[in-house]
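Final report, Chapter 2: Outcomes

The project's central promise was a pipeline that accepts a single protein chain and returns its three-dimensional structure in a standardized token representation, suitable for archiving and comparison. That pipeline is now operational. To close this chapter, we reproduce one record exactly as it appears in the project archive, with the input sequence first and the structure output second.
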Amino acid sequence: MRRAIAVSTLLIVVSALAGCGGQGERPQESHSAETDGVQLPPTQGIFDYQLGGAYDSVQIETGDSAPDVVVRDATATALDGAYSICYVNGFQTQPDEAEEWLTSRAHLLLRDSKGEPEPDPDWPDEYILDPSSAENRESILSIIGPAIDGCARSGFEAVEIDNLDTWTRFDRINPKGAQALARAYVDRAHRTGLAIGQKNAAEIAATAHDDWGFDFAITEECGVFEECGSYAAAYGTHVLQIEYPDALADVGMSFDDVCADPDRAPLTILRDRDLVARGEPGYLYDRCD
């Protein structure tokens, strides 16, 4: 899920480590629908983001329709007939696995100033992984790597690695170590035949694509944060965009405003903040035509 980041600090660090890519016009497509042996997401059709529960169809203007592109958790199954993207938390723990990380894997967690495992202040049931050392990265990859492999075995076409920007929010993480882990995830995904999507962190989009090898982007609230052009400059039309009604209301925007943005992704949707399954209280889905 989207988290606020220190933009000025991030820009300084990225400039020093990798060189900032300029943000300009939407580029010509630098890759086809198939790149480096992996299949990229479609840029037309119905998109849905189903992390809170899987379901097979959405309600659109013409009635029920199965998604053409869908993101689901790694514990769910791929959707038959759709380009299915598998969600994996690559830089923080998942809530239902926290106890295991706090016990048998505690040495891989970032420590706060008191030496205690560091939780994410926005998501206190998630703990921060520390990829600063080569030894830690190898151990983390031995745990997360099989999850990526499992996505491929389950029929997913791509993987979304969440919390790519964690190193920008916790200064005790070595940035180069975090970036090395990101590249290791890219290599692991590509070896299994999966495309891999950058999640958020617009300020490093050019670096993530050009230097680290991410194939496409998934962005939450780039309309709210006026970041959509950064993703378009790096990935062209291969961007999947999710907006949330509460954040839009906070900045006085409507979803129609998002859809009218020339930089918004071809597949842009509005979802409820909790991403609940269709039919559950609070469910919300809309899309740009």
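Archive annotation: Confidence is low (pLDDT under 50) at residues 2-33.
This record, like all others produced under the grant, will remain available to the consortium after the project formally closes.
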